[in-house]
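Changelog-adjacent note: as of this version, every example in the card shows the full chain rather than a window. The one below runs 923 residues end to end.
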Amino acid sequence: MSLHQLFQGTSAQLQTEMQLILNTIVEGLCGADAQGNATFCNEALLRMTGYRMEEVVGKNLHALLHNRRPDGNPYPGEECPLTKALESRQPIHLLQEFLWRKDGSCLPIEYRAHPLPQPTGLTACVIAVHDISQQEQAIASLRINEERFRRILASVAEVAWTADRNRQTIYISPKVESVLGYTKPEICSSGPLLRSGLIHPEDFGRVSRSYRALFESQRPFDEEYRIRRKDGTWIWIHDRATGLHQENKITYADGVFGDITRRKRAEAELQWKTAFLEAQANSTIEGILVVDSRGRRLFHNQRFVELFRMPPDLVANRDHRPMLKYAATLLKNPEPVMAKIHHLNQHPDETSRDEIELLNGMVVDRYSAPVIDKEGVYYGRIWTFRDITERKRNEEMLQKLSLAVEQSPASVLITNASGDISYVNQKFTEVTGYKLSEVLDRNPRLLNARVSPPEHFRNLWSTITRGDEWKGELCNRKKSGEIYWEAATIRPITDAQGTITSYLALKEDITERRRAERELWLTKASLENASAGVFWMDPQAHIVYANEAACRSLEYSREELISLSVLDIDPSFSAESWSKAWEECKRRGSVTLESQHKSKQGRIFPVEITASYVEFDGQEYSFAFVRDVTERRELETQLRQAQKLEGIGQLAAGIAHEINTPTQFVSDNLTFLREAWKAIHELLELYRSETQKAAASMGNEATAALLAAERKLDLEFIVAEAPHAIEQSLDGAQRVARIVRAMKEFSHPDSAEKTETDLNRAIESTITVARNEWKYVADLSTQFDPALPRVVCFPGDINQVILNLLVNAAHAIKEKIKESEKGLIMVSTAVRGDFAEISVTDNGTGIPEAVRMRIFDPFFTTKEVGKGTGQGLTLAHTLIVKKHSGKIWFETEMGRGTTFFIRLPIKPSEQPKTAQAPLATPS
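Full-length structure tokens:
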């Protein structure tokens, strides 16, 4: 029996029962005749409109409830859809309509009108009215939330998108225009070819395969590729999508992409990328099912069929049991749902409201209430069902977005257009110590630590008020007074008309990072500006870091140096010795040693190394300070030489003091003997002559005795050799005196100032002192220029240089000559303009070409170990060039010998000349 047939029955009891049933329905229900007059209504409709039953039944529904538009203007009856439906006898379903209550307020509704096919009474149409005021409020609230999160989404750096498997874009966030230069309508209306056509040809195949895999095997899409902006420039984007969803049986992917060009260009700059998914909510009306007291189906509406997709044969079958079994097959968890139905059938006085989930993912809000009259008679039960799938999804999405913002690791601050705070998240409270209630409606300047200049904040506000994003660092003060730094990104949020409504600030506390950066900068600056070389080495002796001083000393660029190992720059290390040194440093923690370094040009110089063992980030390193001790060695050598000369001078002075006196009286006595011998010899000859004359008178015996005494004394030999012995003794005494005097002059310490010196005499004394070095291997000759004037110099230094050159010459000759042979050394002086020139020539081996450029380098020697320090010529170069502003060079020929030249200014200027590099020939 149909519903209109029930209302046409004449049984008062049946009409009463039906009225009770109608009153239990939560939706408004009424009948209308062909003229639009109400024939019946239920209590739900009366509650909606505020009228009594007698004020509605019999009245024209349009005139009573529908005579004005929402704006208050008259609503002609001929324009009313219900009137038209009654005239055409066609069913209608209006989602957005309204009624006027008795109190004059407007009520938003959704209603369905079903004309009766064959009316037998007054009722020609049944009208179901659904109050959607709460739904409208929910939609308005949802729109507000949607707009809020759309603004938040527009403020993030990434672009959100939704597309099908053919890359047809159905949604893309407005941020796309700032990233790709295309507007949202251009992307969405251009079909799949635009976005695909913008991908770089080299990346297209990879991106396409990955995108297909998202739909075919649900593998997450996560790609970085190049894409061409509208202005023709290429940028890199990071495009990703992890999930799929269906709308109208079409599968879509939701994803985001962002501009990562800076990251691809190796500019290590982090950007916050936050993606907020846009939720769409759709509202629906309830499905209605009415059952009798025994659970048999009495009535259902079309929405009920649509919700559960009931097959036509079940809808036509009056038996409720097959429909119930079918519904159970649709449920995700049917046991508790069926148990609830059974429980309510056993307890007719109870109401129930719960949510059930279907296998297809739909979530339904189910409500059940008993139909009971005033006397407590139970007539059955009414069930209403509302699809809340979208609402549940939206609630979950909103909850996730809210949690994302609230639990964000960055401080989030939102202000109104005037800059007054309207929202802060939990991280803001943790960082600043201020709760939302303490900063609400206050300006963020309360955090200002007054460190940054006013221009900083003027630039900030001018940037964001003209609609641009501002990025920078702020120095703020916490509630506790503590100063902290934060990196902030502030962007305006605009409404649909482009008017700024609020500002969003994302801020990260970078206090520790700034402190670490400052310490790192100071440490790096200290290392780079250190006077000593600084090296970091790994266990394999590879150089992983070197400072500027290290690069200068070794004459390598930093890139060249870190491509080398310790074995390349330190000739004293081998792979085996390095391994032992590493273990020793690791065991002791720190070691100090002396070694040698070799520059890029081959120059070898002494160094002092202080190395320490460190571990960092799971790796082992050796951290070393290296100091060039060439100058210190030179100073030590000069000091030792000065001390030696001073000792020799003191010894020579003592020797001269001790030897001069006996030498003097020996010379005096020998001179006396030489003069006395002349007189004695004349007397002796007179005695012998007179004795020979008187021999006859003296007798043979006396004469024989005298002759025998002469022969025994060998008087002839004495008379012949005594003058020679005396002369030789005098010459020896004079030579002893000259040696002592030369030694004293050679080793006499220099004064603090230069003095005028007779170079010829000084060189001659040095030759005398060095005689023992050359006399066994060479003959020495001199060619002194008698016109050489006195030269202003430090005579002790010049003596030392000449001595070193003579010793080297003697050693060079000794290596060449055979035993019992001698070489030749020539020492000359001459005047060359304003300079005095000294040359020392030998006919020794000569200097090999391979070592000629290093001959003056500190500690360089071609002699065997223990036979030379390598400091002689270095000291000579230092004394002549640096101390006397002179020049020293050499000419050599292998197998023929070498000549060293020295030029000294005869009268040097007050300021010494800048030291010059050693030359093979004079400039």
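Structural remarks: Residues 247 and 421 are 39 Å apart (CA to CA).
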